[in-house]
Design goal:
Blueprint: E1 25-29, H1 31-48, H2 52-62, H3 68-78, E2 82-86, H4 88-99, H5 103-106, H6 113-122, E3 124-126, H7 135-151, E4 153-159, E5 180-182, H8 196-210, H9 215-225, E6 235-241, E7 245-253, E8 256-262, H10 267-280
Parallel strand pairs: 3-8
Antiparallel strand pairs: 1-2, 4-5, 4-6, 6-7, 7-8
Helix pairs in contact: 1-6, 2-3, 2-4, 7-10
Amino acid sequence: MMQPLWMRVSVIGKVKRFSKGYVMFVTSISSSQMKTVKSNLLHFGRELNIKSSHLTEAFARSVGFNTQAALLDDLQQANAPKVVEFDQGQFFERLSELSGVPDAMLKTSQPHWPETAFTRGVGVNDLRSSSQLSGRTKERLERLFEMMATKGVGFYRAKGSRPAYDPDGLWFGSYRSGASAMRRAFLPPIPDMWDTRSWTSLLAEDALYDSKFTYHELIEIACETHDAFSKDLELYDVVFSAVEGLYVNHDEIEGCARSVLFQREGQLSDVKASDRDQRAKPSVNAA
């Protein structure tokens, strides 16, 4: 019987915790996933005798909204998955306010149950606290993601798979040009002779080159993630996402089809600020 993924990852250190001792976690969530998250929260809520409305309102606060109605309205208007930053400290604080149950009592049985309900609901494993990435690699990732935030890069993607003939071998050997993109706010007008995808990839790869961060370094990090996963798990690609961090797409396990190994603290705020500043700049085509 295959062991759960979290049992197959060696713990080598803890990531920095804040917000009353909890890790902030950034990922995307859709309207349909909200139903699963709510169902997961209700599972724990029944054990604690907490009202459904209190749980959903606490969850809305934990992802930056004053009310559940405001969160659902925002998701409906966007008509697409929304990137949110989950703050478990805010969840417990709001739930305590609404239910009258002290924080300590809410956390007694399983202190991280809201985080589990959230990550399982959106289908993402949070492996940051048990990451096998080396200290040097984490320093390089800090530098890479800071550059991505400020220069407008959306993502870099390294594609590949573990070869069947060599299950112990590394599963990435090269980076394919074009597996990258800029964020919309940073895309200048596209010349008629260029297709959109080539133009945005070229700009993203230029930003990588200018930062003195090589394709080879991306592959080194992609290969390093190899050791965090069981040989039984089919791995697809490694994504360096400006807002969601370093994650791996893989076969579904325990309801999750991807796993996050690294996120830079404050990254989402930096991305939003950079995009806002870029949009505020006068257009080069302005009369």
